[in-house]
Amino acid sequence: LQFLYFIGVMDFIQGQNSWVSLKKQPTSDMIPPTDREDEQVVEQTSSPLRRAQRMTVDLTNSRHNIVKKAAQSIGWTVTKDDEAPSVYWTDTSISVEKVKRISTLGCKVNHFPSMDLICRKIPLAENISRMSKVMPNCGYEDIVPKTFTDFRDFSKHRQQQVQTSLQNKTHTKSFYIVKPNSGCMGKGIYLTSNPEPKAFESAVVQEYVDRPLLIEGRKFDLRCYVLVTSVCPPRIFFCSEGMVRLCSEPYRPINDSNVGTRCMHISNYSVNKKHRAFAIGDGSTGGKRGFDFFTEWLQSQGHDAEKWWTSVHDLAVKTVLAVVPSLAQVYKNSCVPSDDGFTCFELLGFDILVREDLKPILCEVNHSPSMVTDTPFDAKLKLSVLSETMKIASIRRRRLTVSECSKSEDLSQTLGIQGARKKALKRCLADEDSVLKSFVRVFPCSDPVRQNLYKTIIQKGIDNNSTRPVGYDRRATTPNPTPAPKLKKKVRKIISAAPSRTALRRVGNESPTVRTRPKAPKTPVVRPELPPARGGLRSLSYTVTLSSLDTMCSGNYPQPAQSLPRRPSRQIQPPMHPSIQRACKVYF
Q1: Number of neighbours of residue 475 by Cβ within 10 angstroms
Q2: Model-level pTM greater than 0.85?
């Protein structure tokens, strides 16, 4: 009895819940730490995998079973909708409002807000074009093929081609590939030599790369996985495991006869898997192969594989850093001030085409790469990529205090490793190094020359961020507008005499080109007694000028020369203040 009494006292001191839990001999690793005990537990626990075992994940919005298998393989617990998980995992993009709620709860989510800046074809092309002008001769000129988002720019390009061909007395027919802005899985992609103007409304038109590198006589592309764990400061990882996707038909130079052969020119898996010649392999044969096979193939052809993969890492880093200042600004406005910068993480799928001269070309970026496991090779590869992604995302970081947040308000300090974050980030580097297996940290970079170039890119992006890059989410960063001034006495007097629908029909043909505000009427305003509108005053929205209001309020109604048009314009001519416009729409 004395022994049991002693155990009970120790149970109370250590803060355990019951004697039963003490009999099960719980360890400190099984108890989730509080915010104050976080740093002590991190120092006591040497393996980040133990910290990953305490994680819970909500997979309600994920339809892929491989995500659940990856979470369970590293010890994560799948929770239901009504529980508070450590990670929200979703297959679709996430809004700024949801990130705000998640940041308040201290959870994580597998997407960044406004990542569409590079995951949609039109914003990607325009942001890369912007960076090529901001930083010329830095490699942004040839990251993507020549892309057109406006038919007028395309027409100028065709005129220059005609002039060049006339001067050189040569005629070469150019082909283009049309891609929908938000398309995926090869849907809506087609090749043509003469794009129509309507194709530029919701798609991009790119020059077709007619001299690709071939494997066994077939065109191919690479599906590379890039992990972004933070944008404040930027943290980018490149996975050394990926897929080589081959076309089903042997490649022949594009011409009018084979321009419609999609399985020859488009290497997307969703397009080629239905072809009769598509073969399911084991990673070294068939239509899908691994990066190990491709590295060995490059070395067998006499190429420097390590140098080539470095160029691919450089392409991925430059693509993400092109929009990092915008992403950081949106992220900063979406999270609480004490956020550690690691609330969001994202696994991106880069589709890279290789030219004949071994130059990597970026085709597109996918914010939710496919996790379909049709073959054993798919299941093995994606399970490995997802499990390591979750391990890296589960590393705990210390939240900043109020005093530390005031020191890092500047965006340039937030993007750089400065101030109070420096010590915490060094500890994160050590934790990440103990987890990394297939992933390689590409930013920050160990090469000082490239690291200085990347810092210059970020600084140029910060300096150019005031111009609001193309595709920028204005709703997420625009401050609250200043309240409109109160309506003047004269305007209130005019609006108070609200006429009916019949009065508006009578003055509908009056010219709305009055640009000067008339003087207030000296005679007292008497509201005419007219029948009320059938649908109510709020259902009307016609073009109304101040002169029309004065005429109606004075009781003089001009007779129209012809009937009112069926659909009048809804714009109110300047110089009306926005508050007056809102008042007119409400009352008339």
Answers
A1: 10
A2: no
